[in-house]
Every structure is written in C-alpha cells, then in structure tokens.
Amino acid sequence: xxxxxxxxxxxxxxxxxxxxxxxxxxxxxxxxxxxxxxxxxxxxxxxxxxxxxxxxxxxxxxxxxxxxxxxxxxxxxxxxxxxxxxxxxxxxxxxxxxxxxxxxxxxxxxxxxxxxxxxxxxxxxxxxxxxxxxxxxxxxxxxxxxxxxxxxxxxxxxxxxxxxxxxxxxxxxxxxxxxxxxxxxxxxxxxxxxxxxxxxxxxxxxxxxxxxxxxxxxxxxxxxxxxxxxxxxxxxxxxxxxxxxxxxxxxxxxxxxxxxxxxxxxxxxxxxxxxxxxxxxxxxxxxxxxxxxxxxxxxxxxxxxxxxxxxxxxxxxxxxxxxxxxxxxxxxxxxxxxxxxxxxxxxxxxxxxxxxxxxxxxxxxxxxxxxxxxxxxxxxxxxxxxxxxxxxxxxxxxxxxxxxxxxxxxxxxxxxxxxxxxxxxxxxxxxxxxxxxxxxxxxxxxxxxxxxxxxxxxxxxxxxxxxxxxxxxxxxxxxxxxxxxxxxxxxxxxxxxxxxxxxxxxxxxxxxxxxxxxxxxxxxxxxxx
Length: 529
Prior knowledge:
Blueprint: H1 2-12, H2 18-23, H3 31-63, H4 67-93, H5 96-118, H6 122-125, H7 128-141, H8 144-158, H9 160-188, H10 191-205, H11 208-220, H12 232-261, H13 289-298, H14 300-330, H15 334-366, H16 368-392, H17 404-435, H18 440-470, H19 479-526
Helix pairs in contact: 3-9, 3-10, 3-11, 3-12, 3-15, 4-9, 4-18, 5-9, 5-12, 7-8, 9-18, 10-15, 10-17, 11-12, 11-15, 13-18, 14-16, 14-17, 14-18, 14-19, 15-16, 15-17, 16-17, 16-19
C-alpha cells in the first residue's frame, strides 16, 4: 500500500510549470537527495578554486609561468598514476564509504598543515644550497639545449613545498570533483533524474566560485592591516588553508548523512533501479587494474570520452600558460596576484551561474550534442582572439587606451572565464551523462582512468608541447605555433563529440528498451492463465 502511495505522489508531482521547468525542475520529495549533493559539490569547488588560485600564485611568483608545464608533466602526471593505482586497489578491498573517506584524508592532512606548519618553516625545508650546486653543475656540464629544461626542474625542486601544493591542488580537481563527487552522483542518480539534477548541481554548486573568490579577496588583500614585519602572504595562507579544512569536514559530513538518510529511502534510491547498461551493479565481477585499462583501450565509447577530456586539458593548458605569463609580469607580488585571482574566480562563478541556467535548457531542449559542442567552440574562438591580441599587442600600443600588458591580462581573463564557465555548465554535465548508460565496471575503473590519468595526460600533453617549444625560445616568440596546436586539438575534440553522440544515443535506446521489457514482465506474469 505504501509503495502505491509513493508512486501516486510521484505521478501527481510529475509536471512542472513553465517557469519551474526552466529554473527549478526538482520535485519536493527529491530535495532531500538534491540539496546535500549540491552542498557537496559546492564544497568541492570552493576548495578547488582556493587551491587553484593559490597554487598559481605560489608557483608563478617564485618560479615563473614557464615552470607550470614542467610541474604538470614531471609531478602531476606520475602522482596521478599513483593515485589511480591506489584507488583501483582500494576499490577492490574497501567499502565505498571507507574508500571515499580514505581518498579525502590525504588532502585534508596536507592542506591543513601547509598554512600552519610547512609554509612558516619554508626556509628550513627548501634545499636552496643543493639547488645552487645543481645549477652550477648544469651550467658547466650539460649541453645548452637541455639547460632550459633542467634549470626549470631545479627551480621546481628548490621550492618543492609549493610544487607539492600545486600538484595536490591539480589532483583535487580530478580525484575530488571528477572522481569522488561525480562517481557518487552517477551511482545514486537515475537517468531521468540526471537530466534535471546535473545542471542544477552545476548551477548552484558553482556559486562556490563566487564564495571562494570573496574569501580569497578578503584574506589576500590584508597587507595594510598586518603589523610591520609580519609576512602578509603567510597570514593569508593560514586563513585560506583553514577555510579548505572546514570545507573538507563539511564534505565528509554531507556524504555520511547521504548514506544514512538518503540511500536508505526507497523513493530516492533503489539499487535495482539504477541500471548500468541494462545490468545491475553487481552483475559483473571486479577486474584488475590491467584488465580495466584493457577495457578502456578496447572500448570506443570510453575512448571517445577520453579524447574529450584530453582535448580540453591540452587546449586550455596551452592557452592558460600564455595568460599566466602575462599575469605574472603584471602582478609580481603574491598578495596582489592572489587578489586578482579572487576577482577572476568571482567573475567565473557569476558567468557559470548564468550559463548553467542557459545550459540546463540547452541540454533539455537542444540535446546532448549541441551542449557538448559548446565547450570546444568557445575555447577555439576565444583562444584564437587572445593569441592574436598578444601576438600584435606591441604594434597596437600607440592606439590602445591602456597598457598592452594590462589589456592582455584582461582579455586572457575573459577568455578563461568564458571557457571555464562553459566547461562547468555544459562540458562536465554532458560528460557525466555519457557515463550513466555504462556498466558498473566501466563507470568505476574506466572513469578513474579517464578522469584522473586522462585529465592529467591532457594537461601533461600540453606541458610536453610547451617544454619542446621552450627549447627553441621563449613562449612569446612561438605563439603562432601554439595557436596552430590549439586549432588541431580542438578539431579532434569536435570529431570525438560527434562520434560519442552516436554511441551515447544507441546506449540510451538500448537502456530504455530493456527497462520497458523489465517493466512489462511483472504485468505479463499477473495476467490470468
């Protein structure tokens, strides 16, 4: 009887007004499931924004933007592979809840320690003398062609705490947002719910960019308010790392509450209803990591998703390094740099909120393909305009009302804001929707390989391109070559979107056909002989 009442309530609440269809397509009984997920995404993004802006400040102001591609390739990529190995191993031996807590813990420990223990003792832990010896050795022994690469690696080694901060901040974006949050969302969300929920996750969760931007501005712009002789940047780091630690605790608390009160409610979660390619989550045995990668290699569907992630990672990395090189010249002071990044994050949050409002309707009204194409087209158009301005800024200096460097910083910021807002509002939801029709093993192991290793390979691929280019001269003299690389990569990304759309629609039709068959079987059995 109770199940009939639940079904009746859902049926009665099935339609929305036109206004609510656009802005709030959530049933009242679903708020218990929807709002905690929004809070989790808010905290994940709040942390990531603070980490992202602070990591750039730590590296660009002491090692230059050119150090970023070296960090991505020599630091982020190997550690990403290590995390995937650990995650895949633990996923076979730990319960999902224990696995979630185990992945959050290392980040919580490091970032809570950085502002209060590591940074105040930076002089004691940085190997300055050893780095000086290595630099002399490189200058005296190594060929000139390899000195640029080795000097950058030595610079990164000399500031290893900041380098580790950068690497773990990058991993938080992959392990935290892409893997832990979205995998949990995919596991507990029905396909019909995803069409309404996912855009809402992005719309409300990305308000974290505004909150984190305000937090960064408030705690970075404190130089005039600290006593003489006190390290203003050190004080800023204490407050920002404290905010990250509190946010991590909120994530853990929300996840615990979801498991206790939402996943035990049959109206909101029924494992038998969450199908994966027409099979229940327990229908496939667990695979080893090697077997999982073989599945990834052999699956054209997963291969297309991987190409999307690689395309975004490489293209945005190539553009961002050029922009951050301009930004570092404009703001050599760490507090000033971080204050600007706070305003940048605020603007990104507002733009994302606006685009997600549009994006949720793009997915529902224009379909998955149109939404998925928005990100590569946005990056291609805005990236080309930014590169063209930087290449010609000196020749335009006589007719520009402001400093060419300042305008390059602003145009690059606008390009990044639009690209990131499009990623958060359209790229991420469409990518995550593509996982839903897959079987459980492809979701867990395939998603880990794509979102962690694939994302890092994307950014590291951009790093390799930049490392090779730096061997032949500074970034500023090789901008046409970088623009060419961006164009080729985005073209391949667009081709992959069309290919994935064909396979995604096929899997949705298969899933709908199997669900219709499953629903018809009980009715057939109930008919009198």
